[in-house]
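Recall from the previous chapter that SMILES is a line notation for molecules. Here it describes magnesium ion.
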Amino acid sequence: MSVEKLSIAKAINASLRTALENDPKVLIMGEDVGKLGGVFRVTDGLQKDFGEERVIDTPLAESGIVGTAIGLALRGYRPVVEIQFDGFVFPAYDQIVTQLAKMHARSLGKVKLPVVIRIPYGGAIGAVEHHSESPEALFAHVAGLKVISPSNASDAYWMLQQAIQSDDPVIYFEPKRRYHDKSEVDTEAIPGPLHTARVARAGTDLTLAAYGPMVKTCLEAAAAAAEEGKSLEVLDLRSMSPIDFDSIQASVERTRRLVVVHEAPVFYGSGAEIAARITERCFYHLEAPVLRVGGYHAPYPPSRLEDEYLPGLDRVLDAVDRALAY
Amino acid sequence: MSVEKLSIAKAINASLRTALENDPKVLIMGEDVGKLGGVFRVTDGLQKDFGEERVIDTPLAESGIVGTAIGLALRGYRPVVEIQFDGFVFPAYDQIVTQLAKMHARSLGKVKLPVVIRIPYGGAIGAVEHHSESPEALFAHVAGLKVISPSNASDAYWMLQQAIQSDDPVIYFEPKRRYHDKSEVDTEAIPGPLHTARVARAGTDLTLAAYGPMVKTCLEAAAAAAEEGKSLEVLDLRSMSPIDFDSIQASVERTRRLVVVHEAPVFYGSGAEIAARITERCFYHLEAPVLRVGGYHAPYPPSRLEDEYLPGLDRVLDAVDRALAY
Amino acid sequence: MDSTAARKPRRGSSKRAAGTKATKAARPDEPELVQLLTPEGERVEHPDYSIDLTSEELRGLYRDMVLTRRFDAEATTLQRQGELGLWASLLGQEAAQIGSGRATRDDDYVFPTYREHGVAWCRGVDPTNLLGMFRGVNNGGWDPNENNFHLYTIVIGSQALHATGYAMGVAKDGADSAVIAYFGDGASSQGDVAEAFTFSAVYNAPVVFFCQNNQWAISEPTDRQTRVPLYQRAQGYGFPGVRVDGNDVLAVLAVTKAALDRARTGQGPTLVEAFTYRMGAHTTSDDPTRYRRDEERELWEAKDPILRLRTLMEREGHADEAFFTALEEESDALAKRVRDVVRSMPDPDHMAIFENIYADGHALVDEERAQFAAYQASFAEESH
Amino acid sequence: MDSTAARKPRRGSSKRAAGTKATKAARPDEPELVQLLTPEGERVEHPDYSIDLTSEELRGLYRDMVLTRRFDAEATTLQRQGELGLWASLLGQEAAQIGSGRATRDDDYVFPTYREHGVAWCRGVDPTNLLGMFRGVNNGGWDPNENNFHLYTIVIGSQALHATGYAMGVAKDGADSAVIAYFGDGASSQGDVAEAFTFSAVYNAPVVFFCQNNQWAISEPTDRQTRVPLYQRAQGYGFPGVRVDGNDVLAVLAVTKAALDRARTGQGPTLVEAFTYRMGAHTTSDDPTRYRRDEERELWEAKDPILRLRTLMEREGHADEAFFTALEEESDALAKRVRDVVRSMPDPDHMAIFENIYADGHALVDEERAQFAAYQASFAEESH
Ligand SMILES: Cc1ncc(C[n+]2csc(CCOP(=O)(O)OP(=O)(O)O)c2C)c(N)n1
Ligand SMILES: Cc1ncc(C[n+]2csc(CCOP(=O)(O)OP(=O)(O)O)c2C)c(N)n1
Ligand SMILES: [Mg+2]
Ligand SMILES: [Mg+2]
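With both inputs in hand, we obtain:
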């Protein structure tokens, strides 16, 4: 049976397993990914089945992990690197931005770096500092990287397959608060293109654009709005670099209103890029300015405050109301 | 005489000298800032006059520089750190983002980190890779940091004075291609607030918003447009975090059109944030979408291509024409 | 808590003859480590390190370790009861922390990682203050300058550089204080720690790097971080490294004191590797049965830091039954106080999200604060 | 260029008796360094390293150094003439680079920093290809896989990790190739280099870290990076370090070969510190008179790597006048070719901005490329 109901975490695990099986060059690297199976158990069982040479517990040094992954990629391997939590990617930022992102261009295409960096990201899990951040804009701004995030198990499986098969470096953000959300995964499906948005719910009055953990929040908001007679379309963007502006534009040309939702701080966030570009593309279609719902310009707060900090149903609906009021 | 015509580089040097004189806690730290006076001679003569204990040549390790600067600040010092070139700030990115930016909040205000990080940035100097980048958005997105850039010698002097006096960490981006541009500096003036924009040229038909090296480009564009009978207002934003949206809004409410210009890549750049927020604030005033002129989604190219890559007069005017055509 | 009170030293009766080399290898393949008190509670001599404590001082150290362990156990319980979101237990590392913590002077500055509850105790930080971040009400609940004890640092290795910079400042000030930076065996791999070694050596900064090698970095044994003993790392940077029995509070105290003295007297940095063991899980979120065997834990149980000191104290008569009974009562009282404080620890006000982001303010924060307040108020209105 | 051609070894006549310890301290306070050829051109023996080269091999090494120096000088001239934006001269480091470069096998992989023009030469990279990035027409003008010579890396220290990862891959493949990573004395301070040491030791990766200690990192002398000799850094990570006279091509060759052999035979990493001197400016943008004294340079001039080999060759008759004359002509020809190639090096097409950013494409790049093309075309139209 190729269709199974899986949690996002299990779908990622299955996807890694498939990749390890299909291509002897695929490696898993990171802190605690081996015996422990990762702090979220996403790599559970992989070292046992594929050995320490392919599922590698690394020293505690993120720059070292990404830097050696680059070297392994130069040697022909396809490393899939795990960063344990969003807030711990920064020691590797230099290697990612100055080396991983630029080597293909630097070498005029002679060198390819098929490295995937998996980062569990986002909040709402009651964690301590550095464990709940959404740094995607800091990667999407950098040319040479691709940045994606699945919102459901099927995408988690397939987008990771495609990321591993891509010859470009891909930052794969995993919505950790949704790790246990289950949905159907068809491991024999033929997936669509990686960097396209998906209409998660069709609607006519306003478009909600989101990715990763906020897709579910937006779907809930759309359901709530429906009860009040408002028809919201929900776009699951899936990719933050590139962004599928064509799909957003197509949706907005119909709905004439757009609200972008992400956990990351609004200031210089992905919502800004979407708002700017969609306003340019749809200037005569928009009935209201593109509104953004996201984190505040504040460090991610202690967990007892995170419900107030994170965009939830109410804040999304508030923005929807404001947009509809124009 | 307190009014002098100085280059931007000399103004920064004078400002550092003043700070070293006025406050024994001020330190200068960085690679080659001592005997050499920095690769741009910005710290020229300071070690000679203030000694090795206050003007410190550091080991070649940016994370170490910023990390120890944090420690020195905890001890009561006010370090002014030099990063040699824009492209070399990334090894320090973790210390800047996870420690420098967050420690004040983490300590509930008990700990202040008055650290200034000076970064010569931007292109057009014919340099090799990593020496011409504009990474300001990667800092402005991060709460806890302030991000500024002067466009002229007077601002270079005063904004640095204010940054050093501020109890917050400030990233001070120096427009290296303008280092030798001269203008008057009144070292006894009473400066206005640090994070406000300045009308660099008044106009009525469209607002050009820029900062750092692009202010001059915009002023040239405005002069050229004036010959064609178009009246462009040029705003020197001076601060990328916070952004003085009030001033931009006030200008756009008059001119009804806005073009944002920066060297950094447009995608997820500061222009996106400005476009998004100003569109929200001025939705009914704007006659055209906010347009952005900046770098492409590409690594900074080899220097023989930089003239094509960088926003120049022509590209600014092209955007102006497009905005006016709405 | 006056374990450092001056008193005429008394000689223990069970010390081995001076000159007997009393370093012990932790495992057959491991190098020697400084030890002054064996797992069996025997006092032994070391050619380079000696210590002479009064009974009162010994009781002080014992009390510190017992209360720290009790506090730690209570915190673990509170986490299980849902009062804390997480807890990082120091179980097994009491000697490493109390020995080194008690070696510091008031004017020294301490940079902990996230597990230094025993050091915090020595510095006079109220233990309940440590719990705020684990409960999720703040990211650091004490004023670092009040006890010269910095906030916990979670990003592994970062604080080694802060300590080095702070120590550079101490030297600039001409003060004779010292600085101590705590980190783990896993942290030794981080570039920041290496850069701290470089900076501290080049500037001869008065800093002690105190590495608690508790054998594990979450699920990874130390051989994933190094193939030679960690204390040896220092020599390649030009300063001494020493391995001490991290479960021997006397040896840790002596070795750390010596290292701090080196710092004070202008001799620069030292790396102290306290060889110890993480008896519990990495944190309450961790399940060590997935990656390590019970036997290992049992081996280390026999080296318990508290038990061996008690054996010594009882044999040599440093404390009577009354002391131990009183201490038990004090432990219970501490645990109760911790429990009570935590349970009544209020959630922070929502507006705290917008506080302390900047010292000098930021226009956007003001704007967002106002919007948030208005938004919150709109609910209040609705519910009227 | 067959300096490695097999030939019956001939014994030099001026070697010191075997067993004489022939290591020399670079400065009174510096430790000994491996030397096989003195600054005076005398062959000496070393207990751990020996080498026996044919006349042809010696001539090969000499030719490599002379041509490299000539190429380097020509590039400096071209920079002065405005043909290059910048040049980083290797002057003085020829022996360090040729000795180590010639120690590598074709299947080894080399990770340079930005000054390894001599190593590139040994690897067979056409020298004119090195000039593209300094002229500003590309950021790396050769195919790294053609000669197993990676692109120049400007962000200091990064490549040490790439080399380590590559070496981990070599080991995984079961190949007996080795990897060599070049970096400078300044680079030794970067966290990435330390992490490379850690990873290579933990995974026993077949990599040689080749540190050219040319005494300066731009304006900073080595004592701003370390207070002990750099080769000692290795031992704290659990692998050997050795300091070699970096101006002695024979010693560098012998030491590097031995280190590469260790790597090949599963003995893991080695750190080689080649003690040498940057005779010129850091780059053509630099002005060393601001921070160092001429006397230092003069001291090192007396240790010139080329001169000492020539003295040996002349005294022992490894080459005749004809060889030196022919080499001079070859140098001139090389210089002329370099000049001609650079001067006719075309600027890249504008559209190159949008090429090779991604292997699999990116919608935004496509959009921006099209906009740019249209924009450029609009000028073409206007000018019609
Ligand atoms: C930069 C960074 N990477 C990863 C983590 C996640 N993490 C938290 S603790 C830990 C292991 C630390 O081991 P060690 O340094 O030995 O200290 P111990 O927990 O044993 O006291 C890891 C990997 C982190 N906090 N910071
Ligand atoms: C991360 C980083 N920081 C700063 C620089 C600027 N920089 C270029 S070369 C150099 C000095 C390098 O010294 P060393 O490692 O000794 O090599 P050498 O130039 O002497 O060959 C510096 C500081 C850089 N390229 N990368
Ligand atoms: Mg540990
Ligand atoms: Mg050097």
